[in-house]
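Hi U.,

Before I forget, here's the chain from the pilot set. I'm dumping it here mostly so it's searchable later in email.
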Amino acid sequence: MEQEEGGAHSGPLLRYVNALAAEIEKKHPDKLIDTLAYWYTEEPPARVRPRRNVRIRLCPIGVCEAHPYGQCPYSAYFMKNLNAWSKITNQLYIWHYNTNFAHYLLPFPDFDELAADIPMYKDHGVVGLFMEGSVTSGGGAENAELRSYVMAKLLWDPETDVKRTIEEFHEAYYGKAAPPMLQYFELMHHQVREPPAGLGRHIWIYDSPGAPYLNAEFIDKAAELSRQAEALAENDGVRARVHKARLGIDYVRLTRAKRFTVDGEWYRPSDLNGLKEQWNAFVAGLGQFGITNLSESSPLTRDEGDFAEFMRPYRIATLENDRLRVHVAPELGGRIVQIINKRSGKDLLYQPDPSAKQYPNLGGLAVAPYSDYVARTPWPARWELEPGGTATETWLSGVCENGLKMRRRLWLEGSILRTRTVLENAGKEPIEALLQSRWEVAPGPLEGVSVSYRTQAGARMETPLIQPERQPSGTESYAGAEQPDGEWTIAARAGGPAIVNRFGKDQVARCFLSWTAKSENRVGLAVASERRTLAPGDRLTLDADYGVR
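Structure:
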């Protein structure tokens, strides 16, 4: 069906929904059957058309929210889909996103986009809009009150004077504190407006506090404007509103204080005791406003649990030769947290934002056992450093609760870190398992970066990660003749060192690639062994090497 529909995943789904709608229409001729054009079904089909009683709800989940969609190259893919859907249905609705779902409190300067795109939807024949912000009962998303007011005005009248609407809200909501709060609003949008009106940054609905538009200069200016507004507030109610608006700035500073660095034999934040005090005060402040969630995915109580569990020092082991310096944190899943290329002084590994869930127990270079290729999480393992290592070689041992054991050798050869991991079923029952070794690297701006390899079928592949009319992110998997023939590299087309991952091609059954340029430049490469039923005592080996050339 997908081949008949030009490769669009929406084809089979829409055929099914049409058939369902045809049956429902017999008893309920006045009802519409709603279906999403969302993620993998966002691209419209080539042949099938929605029935008259089928509503298509198009979801622009991958767009840049800083700029009008029709003016941003990163949103061109969505405009192409919007134009195509609008030509084949008169029941087109939009599910529009208007907050940061990973960090509700973060400054989210999307008002220029809202002002342009709500009228744009009407011009494209859209007949309904659903605007999704913070969905939790505690609320608290950045500028939620102002955003709700402006959206309501625009939905009622797409020709609303948005600038005047924003000003009248500030005057009513902040009183004498309105002037510095309006300056803060403009400062936020200066970060994203195209030059010469601004700095031209992009924003996304899952941005981290480390996003480029939240630079130190902006944070400092925003904090000063907040102090000015608080001083001008004429009563406690206004002061509370100013304080609430400042939570996003405080949150950015707090998360940046969580950054782990290598300090001698330890991996830890620079001021752990100060960080704990800062965190406790911040959480207490959230309680004053009834805020229950910092993100869509989990309640504040989980964030508190993660903080208590992970914000502590971790001992590290170091491997070093004349080309590489490698830091390993056994307690963090046996994870390699840094690979320094000594010739450039740069870390090959992408460093996760400290605001991420379960930080610092993520990212880097790690190996883990999985039940199958689509499992979202591995079996947890407790790792320990074995005694007797050298400056360039060490061994780790890992144990899982289900009886699986691992032994991992790490050693340096020139500019390559070599790894060998042996998985053994030390239990009494057979276990289906595989090993996956993954690293996340930081190759620089992805606009000039390609992934290169030769397939096992002999074809030479060199693919730019950022391409026109596509989102600046994606995932791919390879198996059989299509997977790399024992090596793949990430390199800038302008030249310079290539980041390389080599592996035993006879040991690897699947390879996985992921990348994003959405406020960060990160590429993930993973290789997975065959999935086998390991009888008691059976072993499985995975060799994978990492470095530069």
